[in-house]
C-alpha cells in the first residue's frame, strides 16, 4: 500500500501543478489543437504502422547513490517520485507528451486541475501496478524477461499509436470547429 | 493468433485509417453536442493509465 502511495501521490501532485502551468496556454486553443494534431498524426502513424521512430524522451535514470544505503520506505518514495509522474525517465511512448497539450486545451481552470490530478493518479497507479506485477518474474531467466518486456513494449507502442491516431482525428475535427466550420 | 493477424502491414494500415476517421467522426458528434471537453478529459485519463501500464521496462 505504501509502495502504491509512493507512486500515486507525487504523480498526482506533479500533474496537478502541470495542469495549472499548461492552463496558461488555454487562450490559444486553435494553435494548440493544430500542434497536437500534427504531433499525434506523425507519431501515431509511425507507432501504429510499426515504423522506426525516435520518441521524444529524456535519458535520465535514477542515480544509484540516491537509492543505496537508504531505508526501504525512502527508496520507495524516491522511485515513486521519479517514475510515478512519468516525465523525467526514459519514455518509449509518444503519447506521453500529448497529455500536457490535452490538459492545456481544457479552458476551465478547476476542471483542468481535477483532470490533471486524475491523470497523475491514473499514470502513477498503472505504473506501480506494472512494477509490482514485474516483481513476480524476478527469478526468471533475464534473457526471457528482456524478450518478454520487449514484446510487450512493441504491442503497447501499437496501442499507443492507435490512441494517438484517434486523438489526431478528434483534434482535427476540433480545430475545424474552432475555425467556425461545422458539419 | 489475433496478434499475428493484427500486426500484418495491411491490417495495421486499415486499423490506423479506421481509427483516424473514427476519431474525426466521434469528435464532430461530440463538438455538436458540446461534450468534447468531457470526452477529452476521459480520453486523457485513459491514455495516462495506458502509458503508465505500458512502461514495464523503463528504469
Strand content of chain B: under 5%
Main beta sheet strand tally, sense and closure of chain B: none
| Uncertain stretches of chain B | none
Question: What is the largest interface, and how many residues per chain?
Answer: A-B, 66 and 42 residues
Short description:
The complex is a heterodimer of chains A (183) and B (59). Chain A has 183 residues and is mainly α.
List the helices and strands and how they pair.
The complex is a heterodimer of chains A (183) and B (59).
Chain A: H1 2-23, H2 29-48, H3 64-67, H4 72-83, H5 98-104, H6 109-134, H7 142-178
Chain B: H1 2-6, H2 9-32, H3 36-54
Structure description:
- The complex is a heterodimer of chains A (183) and B (59).
- With 183 residues, chain A is an all-alpha fold.
- Chain A has one domain (2-178).
- Helices cover 70% and strands 0% of the residues of chain A.
- Chain A is built from seven helices and no strands.
- Chain A has helices spanning 2-23, 29-48, 64-67, 72-83, 98-104, 109-134, 142-178.
- The longest helix of chain A is centred in the last third of the chain and has 37 residues, at 142-178.
- Chain B has 59 residues and is mainly α.
- The longest helix of chain B is centred in the middle third of the chain and has 24 residues, at 9-32.
- The radius of gyration of chain B is 15 Å and the shape is flat.
- At the A-B interface, helix 2, helix 5, helix 6 and helix 7 of A face helix 2 and helix 3 of B.
Amino acid at each position: 500500500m505504501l509502495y502504491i502511495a509512493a507512486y500515486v501521490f507525487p504523480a498526482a501532485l506533479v500533474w496537478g501543478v502541470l495542469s495549472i502551468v499548461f492552463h496558461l496556454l488555454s487562450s490559444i486553443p486553435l494553435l494548440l489543437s493544430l500542434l497536437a494534431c500534427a504531433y499525434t498524426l506523425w507519431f501515431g502513424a509511425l507507432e501504429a504502422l510499426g515504423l522506426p521512430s525516435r520518441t521524444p524522451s529524456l535519458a535520465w535514470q535514477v542515480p544509484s547513490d540516491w537509492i543505496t544505503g537508504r531505508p526501504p520506505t525512502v527508496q520507495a518514495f524516491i522511485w515513486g517520485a521519479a517514475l510515478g509522474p512519468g516525465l523525467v525517465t526514459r519514455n518509449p511512448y509518444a503519447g506521453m507528451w500529448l497529455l500536457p497539450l490535452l490538459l492545456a486545451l481544457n479552458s476551465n481552470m478547476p476542471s483542468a486541475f481535477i483532470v490533471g490530478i486524475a491523470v497523475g493518479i491514473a499514470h502513477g497507479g498503472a505504473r506501480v501496478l506494472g512494477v509490482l506485477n514485474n516483481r513476480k518474474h524476478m527469478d526468471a531467466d533475464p534473457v526471457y524477461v528482456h524478450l518478454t518486456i520487449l514484446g510487450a513494449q512493441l504491442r503497447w507502442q501499437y496501442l499507443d499509436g492507435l490512441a494517438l491516431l484517434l486523438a489526431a482525428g478528434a483534434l482535427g475535427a476540433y480545430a475545424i470547429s474552432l475555425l467556425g466550420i461545422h458539419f | 493468433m489475433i496478434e499475428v493477424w493484427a500486426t500484418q502491414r495491411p491490417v495495421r494500415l486499415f486499423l490506423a485509417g479506421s481509427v483516424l476517421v473514427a476519431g474525426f467522426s466521434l469528435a464532430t458528434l461530440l463538438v455538436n453536442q458540446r461534450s468534447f471537453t468531457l470526452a477529452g478529459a476521459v480520453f486523457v485519463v485513459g491514455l495516462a493509465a495506458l502509458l503508465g501500464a505500458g512502461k514495464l521496462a523503463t528504469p
